[in-house]
Give the backbone structure.
Amino acid sequence: MVKTYTIKARNDGFGAQYQAFMSGIAYCMYKNYIYIHSPMLNLTNNENVKSLNNFIGIPINGNKKNINIDIIEKYSSVVHYSNFPSKFYTKKCICLLRKYYYSSPKPMINQIDIAIHIRRGDVNFEIEKKRKRYTNNDYYNKIIEYMNTTYPDYKITIFSEGKIEDFKTIVGKNISFELNTNIEKTFHFMVKAKILVIAKSSFSYCAGILNSNKIYYLNFWHKPLNHWIHIENYIK
């Protein structure tokens, strides 16, 4: 008998929970399991659970009270920590994830040229346990310099949290900032961008999976898909 599988019992942010769902769907497609979707129940940072469940568009499989679930996990560690995630995030899987995503209404935006996600807010270099996700402004200046040189006619939009004063050391041409913007709008900007530079973040990692254009990847524990570009190879 085919096994049923779900992701549940998480209590963290939108990006982490969305990536967990993606990993579960990818794992089920790989194993030929039946994925039973258990929607988000709680989110940090006062995020709107109902709205974001609708936003990602993953359908709920009927009345789950009558469905026996064989495997319950918080995420698929097999997918999450694979050195070759494209083994699981196949073209077929990504097409399905995009189909779900676009099945619900999205914010009206204009496509931007280059989206750079700078992880701030809940990361802090001064706090050791949060330091591993932190990338300093000097490194982002190198990324911006590369983007300005490689795509001289493109405008750069930096997405982050905090105050504009936190980014006073950021330099470069054609830069604008989107700080503390609505989560759905921010995410959709990243999904639609012509070029996306992800951070050490599940939020922009998920956007990268859904984005059908060019993705630049910063090395961290979630490894890149095969077609993503390692930004470290271009930064001196």
